[in-house]
Specification:
The protein has a 9-stranded mixed β-sheet, sandwiched between helices. The chain has a two-stranded antiparallel ribbon with strand order 7-8. It is built from 8 helices and 11 strands. The protein has one domain: Acetylglutamate kinase-like (Carbamate kinase, 3-Layer(aba) Sandwich), CATH 3.40.1160.10. Helix 1 crosses helix 3, helix 5 packs parallel to helix 7 and helix 6 packs antiparallel against helix 7. By secondary structure, it is α/β, with parallel strands linked by helices.
């Protein structure tokens, strides 16, 4: 597969998706994977890749299992986190299949070896896939308990030398307070990592934010539910909130 020449601003993007983003918003689809949402997400990814930008993905597993919540219910934290990692593998395989159905090559690389369904995570192999125009989906977080998939996204973004880390959520950016609870919440167009940490804005966990800051990795937060948001961002449009070191 020969990657197309890029018409986008960014050469390489790492996209962080929450598992909940795949679950949809109604009825039983709050758990598991909503087929329409999966199709929409894969379509957005395909549009960016077909325009010539290399794309890697890290996805959470909260639509199936949340390790922290389970540990609060009595499951040992390390065990709960491992179960959560396996949930991310299920979501990763779903995205791989969704992309395959629309003609986009993708590879799942898992931090926990699961050879029948995925490749092991190998940085140089991931870079080779990206250079060939394939989407690389990083599954199972960092492979270690006590680390979130947000931290895994920051780590993988640095390891593959991504131009930017994009966190796609159900909210269209970073607000000074919860926009669901407060009608007067104000969205930031740009904010620094230090401000995010000092104000405890909850964009990502502190470890993930610190990793981005220390590696000078720009982070943009946008809504996955806004049609075309990812494509517009890849083209250089000011979508959502940009978080940088200054």
């Amino acid at each position: 597969m020969t990657p197309p020449s890029s018409t986008n601003t960014y050469r390489r993007i790492l996209l962080k998706l929450s598992g909940e983003a795949l679950a949809g918003n109604s009825g039983d689809s709050r758990f598991g994977i909503d087929a329409k949402v999966l199709d929409d997400v894969c379509g957005e990814i395909a549009g960016v890749v077909n325009a010539g930008t290399q794309l890697a993905v890290v996805i959470g597993g909260g639509n199936f299992f949340r390790g922290i919540s389970a540990s609060e219910s009595g499951i040992e934290r390390a065990t709960a986190d491992y179960i959560g990692m396996l949930a991310t593998v299920m979501n990763s395989l779903a995205i791989q299949q969704g992309l395959k159905q629309i003609g986009v090559e993708a590879r799942v690389q898992s931090a926990i070896p699961i050879s029948p369904v995925s490749e092991p995570y190998v940085r140089l192999r991931a870079l080779k896939h990206l250079n060939l125009g394939r989407v690389v989906i990083f599954a199972a977080g960092t492979g270690n308990p006590y680390f979130t998939t947000d931290t895994a996204a920051s780590l993988r973004a640095a390891e593959i030398n991504a131009d930017i880390l994009v966190k796609a959520t159900k909210v269209d950016g970073v607000y000074d307070k919860d926009p669901v609870k407060f009608d007067d919440a104000t969205r930031y167009e740009k904010i620094s990592y230090d401000q995010v940490l000092q104000q405890r804005l909850g964009v990502m966990d502190a470890t993930a934010i610190a990793l981005c800051r220390d590696n000078n990795m720009a982070l943009r937060v946008l809504s996955i539910e806004e049609p075309g948001a990812l494509t517009k961002m890849a083209q250089g449009q000011e979508i959502g909130t940009l978080i940088t070191g200054s």
